[in-house]
Batch of 4 targets.
Target 1
Amino acid sequence: MVVVKYPVKCVLCEQPVEIEGFSTDTPQGRLAFCCAGCQSIYQLIYMNKPKAETEHKTINKKEDN
Ligand SMILES: [Zn+2]
């Protein structure tokens, strides 16, 4: 059996990823990056989700009777 190692391309710059470790788990799956720079840039661009929507729960239980 021959194990073929598929070249993984950096999600950001599409260069071959030679070092594992710069990967990020996203809802779309595991994304690989060639370096920490590409990883941080991708996170800045695509994973910039402010935590505002989930904290919009207003409990308004006032017994107004
Ligand atoms: Zn890259």
Note: Residues 10, 12-13, 15, 33-35, 38 surround zinc ion (CB under 6 Å).
Target 2
Amino acid sequence: MRWGGLGAALSLLCLLTLIVRCPKTDSADLKESCSTCKQITDNFAKGFERTAKKNFGGGNTAWEERKLSKYETSEIRLMEIVEGLCDSSFECNHMVEEHEDRLETWWFKSIKVCCPNGTFGPDCNACIGGSERPCHGNGVCNGDGTRTGDGRCSCNHGYQGALCLECVDGYFSEERNDTFSQCTECHPACEICTGPTSHHCKKCKPGWEQDKEEAACNDVDECSREPPPCKGDQYCLNTEGSYLCKVCDKACSGCRGEGPDHCLTCADGYSNEGGTCTDVDECELSESPCSLEHQQCVNSQGSYRCLCAAGFQDRDGVCVLPPVNGERSAGRSNGSVM
Ligand SMILES: *[C@@H]1O[C@H](CO)[C@@H](O)[C@H](O)[C@H]1NC(C)=O
Ligand SMILES: *[C@@H]1O[C@H](CO)[C@@H](O)[C@H](O)[C@H]1NC(C)=O
Ligand SMILES: *[C@@H]1O[C@H](CO)[C@@H](O)[C@H](O)[C@H]1NC(C)=O
């Protein structure tokens, strides 16, 4: 359990105790008992807070600091809290007395699961970097806040080392002293760097190359390579540090860019009209491709279809009138793709 949940857990313990222990209490008594109990739990939470920064002595010496964790879970602290639970109310003192054993069991059993934040292990030792800023604020201390763990730091992204003060490759040190470190991500051009721009690279990332004149890592234009990196029905798009292969427009058979105006040659069913590959309307050709009786030509992008004219049906590739006693006779037409 975490320290923060203590008040709530205690209330629950108290209420359960009341309900389980006093089944024959009549309702007026129960109500009074409840308010007494609530007062006790409130005061316990207050007492817990009051004693949070205390230790065995009065001062705050290093020796006492080390012993602080012992005080935190000690019987002395429990007693100090319990002393402040009731004023002179008989009922309150009676209730505390009655339940003291349970309170103690709970205190020593449950509380031993936890350590204060920033500390770990059986003795609640301070994490690396101190309990105020475990792992120097750049990582998570193993077992933090519990009686378990070995206190080792798991560093956040960008940091490394037992103390989480060093920067990983791809990050540079923005600020650094014995207790503080700020690592910042390199420019995308750099694999390793000493500062924020592409001029600060010590090594370029793949897809970037060292430019001697500019003393910087510049993007490689993969698209200008020979042979080109993309397939025949694709065009190449250079990006920062990489490139993309994008599918050509369907009007094209091979292309150097997006759209029907960047084709190398036009695909079947398209013809070059002033630099743009445009659909050929086969139905408008002097010789219509749908030459059977009652057929109708319908143009489509890159192709066309021969359908039966209105009122006719396709029967094995021939357009015929539907049977007279058919359900419906007009407005139907079967399609057949050529
Ligand atoms: C302890 O840490 C937990 C989780 O990181 C947090 O929710 C809680 O508020 C902290 N408690 C104190 C007293 O700082
Ligand atoms: C280290 O740097 C931090 C952040 O600038 C600063 O708060 C801290 O006082 C410094 N510590 C030392 C020992 O110089
Ligand atoms: C014509 O269309 C009808 C209804 O859609 C279908 O039952 C029939 O099989 C089609 N005929 C042919 C030759 O495709």
Note: The chain is about 25% helix and 25% strand.
Target 3
Amino acid sequence: MEDSLCEPETEIADDAATGPLPTTGIDPQRLPRPEETEPLQIMWRYVIVLSTVHLVALLAFIPWLFTWSGLVAAVAGHFLFGMMGITIGYHRLLTHRGFVCPKWLEHTLAVLGMCNLQDSPARWVAIHRMHHQHSDHQPDPHSPLVNFLWGHVGWVVCRHRRLDRTSHYERYVRDLLRDPFYLKLERKDGWFFVFLAHAIAITFTGAVVGYVVGGGQWAVVGRYAASWYVWAVAVRTVFVLHGTWSVNSLSHVFGYRNYQTRDHSTNNWLVALISHGEGWHNNHHAQPRSAAHGHRWWEFDMSWRIIQGLELVGLAKEVVRPKSKVASDA
Ligand SMILES: [Zn+2]
Ligand SMILES: [Zn+2]
């Protein structure tokens, strides 16, 4: 199977969803929720954690908590954790094997991914491979054809019983779980402690900056620590979360299509902008393994540029490129 991942027995994204092709025009109530989300059960643990990080992010409206260094750290974190961790690490490397890299780099990218409150690498990858297999058909964990809110965040906080089963992991991420590094992270929520550790480290760095800036005044140290916590941890995490969720929601509803795929995926420039190229999602569904998601010259894909850079310095190999041009460009 040309578009399979490296493990033939792992169920991967060939985007060959069965069932009738979606028709054009979207009836937002057309698709039922996945069967195994019935009856609806809220996962309060997720609700509490996600609500907390959103509430903390709202503190950014308090002027006292603004510092330029906190803002710079938030923007830098968006690139480091959001792009390197989620877009390049979780998505293009671990899910689709769009390139290979040394184990130390793969694990580093996975650790960066865990700092975004988007679950463990294995769970994320399994859900996403399942999405590709059943895109916009009923088993799809997060199709916005159920309704927009479901596709954006509803699916995150409602139990999908299949996603918790060992058979689901065996089917979709057997390749990943052969590596003890990923297996360990599944136990006792190891990934969540990585998130907490990074939040503490960032807050501490803010305190150090405050110490330097304020000449040792404790009030300044406290203000900078709080500012970095609010901006570089909470605001950045919320921004990256909505960027990823927008790929699932906006990029399956609004935008244009280069390819006639068996789903409603679209190319959306706004999503591409906030998620470092992930918004070229119709291109991605057409050619899931390609490490480049921008297929036309104007479809700027920051993550692809970074992967090219890694290839240039010998850190990325076997980089998968788009196998065909957009028909109208050929
Ligand atoms: Zn999709
Ligand atoms: Zn994908």
Note: Residues 37-329 form one domain.
Target 4
Amino acid sequence: MRRHTKPIEAIVLHCTATRPGRDVDIAEIRRWHVDGNGWDDVGYHYLVRLDGTIETGRPEGFQGAHVSGQNDGTIAVAYAGGVSASGAPSDTRTPAQKAAILDLLDELAFEYGAFDVDGRLAIRVLGHRDFPGVAKACPSFDVAADYGARHAVAAAILTGETDMDTKPFWASKTLWVNAVAIAAAVAGAFSVDLGLDPEGQVAAVAAIMGVVNIVLRLTTDKAVAAK
Ligand SMILES: [Zn+2]
């Protein structure tokens, strides 16, 4: 097995292509992949079983075997199911599986995610079929519709994490507004002569806030792009 050479930048969802009620576990899938395919280990990093139990497969630090050419820098999460009783692609996720997937994506976002432009922790989440050139239905549902292009934002909200919890303190606009207001008030109270007429002082404060806004937007954009 190879270690990742890139930082983790996306979570990829899969299904096991098993029929409803078939409770496959990680040991069985490991046999498919090791004995059947001749791989070193199970291809997925996590399996979400029918009852929502999350089982660990390949260690996260190693590249999985789940999307051709896209194993470096991605974590593979599979759920048990994905085809109907007749074998057609079907979203068979149980309520327990849906909840467990959200929990797991949330954890992974906090482990690998970056702050998005709104200061929330987020990571890209894709379905196997979303990659170019993949002619499979896996994971048999629209990942973007359920989790958004950056699912973990939703997960952060669901778990009660707010902007204030996750945003670095210096990225708070309120902080800067108040800091500038206090500085202006203190200057006024102590009659510090800023050498500006009243209109000039208002313009100076507005200009400082404009610069702060631009810097915050640029730095938070960068934090996302860096991933
Ligand atoms: Zn797949």
Note: The beta strands are 10-15, 46-48, 54-56, 74-79, 114-115, 121-122, 124-127.
